Automatic annotation (TrEMBL):
Keywords: Cell cycle, Cell membrane, Cytoplasm, GTPase activation, Membrane, Nucleus, Phosphoprotein, Signal transduction inhibitor, Translation regulation. Regulates G protein-coupled receptor signaling cascades. Inhibits signal transduction by increasing the GTPase activity of G protein alpha subunits, thereby driving them into their inactive GDP-bound form. It is involved in the negative regulation of the angiotensin-activated signaling pathway. Plays a role in the regulation of blood pressure in response to signaling via G protein-coupled receptors and GNAQ. Plays a role in regulating the constriction and relaxation of vascular smooth muscle. Binds EIF2B5 and blocks its activity, thereby inhibiting the translation of mRNA into protein. PROSITE patterns: RGS. It is found in: Cell membrane; Cytoplasm; Nucleus, Nucleolus. The lineage of its organism: Eukaryota, Metazoa, Chordata, Craniata, Vertebrata. This is Regulator of G-protein signaling 2. One of its GO terms (cellular component) is plasma membrane. SUPFAM superfamilies: Regulator of G-protein signaling, RGS. Interacts with GNAQ. Does not interact with GNAI1 and GNAI3. Interacts with EIF2B5. Interacts with PRKG1 (isoform alpha).
Length: 174
């Protein structure tokens, strides 16, 4: 758990650290504000609420990484991006990339789907359409929603996000 907390600590930057980051000039900056306990609690209402929140998605992704199953969210996100692709050439190259990264046997981030779905995808990517990964994406979504999501909601990290921060003496004096 300590290693997991260390990995997630960068998500918990307080607003003073974020304000310092905004003042610096340079490349693209990624700043994360700790969500309010109310926002974090919304994530428990529906899996889609968690995925719709940038911070929620980042926290869930880090949680999956700690459980050595981040390939599921990476595949789901790749499919979401794939469905937004307009160009037929890009559609074909992205389909092949997703297939080689997540679907084929011994893929570096191989997801856990049945043999029939893998075969159907292998046939469909020859002439890629926006729906060629739909069955696999639904399977992975369901796996995350029914297995990983409940464990995330029970995790110490999530429980900490839902707690109201203690009132400090400085705040009490004002």
């Amino acid at each position: 758990i300590k290693d997991w907390k260390t990995r997630l600590s960068y998500f918990l930057q307080n607003s003073s650290n974020s304000a310092k980051m905004k003042g610096k000039k340079g490349g693209k900056q990624h700043t994360y504000f700790r969500p309010s306990p109310e926002e974090a609690q919304l994530w428990s209402e529906a899996f889609d609420e968690l995925l719709a929140s940038k911070y929620g998605l980042a926290a869930f992704r880090a949680f999956l990484k700690s459980e050595y199953c981040e390939e599921n969210i990476e595949f789901w996100l790749a499919c979401e991006d794939f469905k937004k692709t307009k160009s037929p050439q890009k559609l074909s190259s992205k389909a092949k990339k997703i297939y080689s990264d997540f679907i084929e046997k011994e893929a570096p981030k191989e997801i856990n789907i049945d043999f029939q779905t893998k075969n159907m995808i292998a046939q469909n990517i020859q002439e890629a359409t926006h729906s060629c990964f739909s069955a696999a994406q639904k399977r992975v979504y369901s796996l995350m929603e029914n297995n990983s999501y409940p464990r995330f909601l029970e995790s110490e990290f999530y429980q900490e996000l839902c707690k109201k921060p203690p009132i400090t003496r400085v705040a009490q004096a004002t």
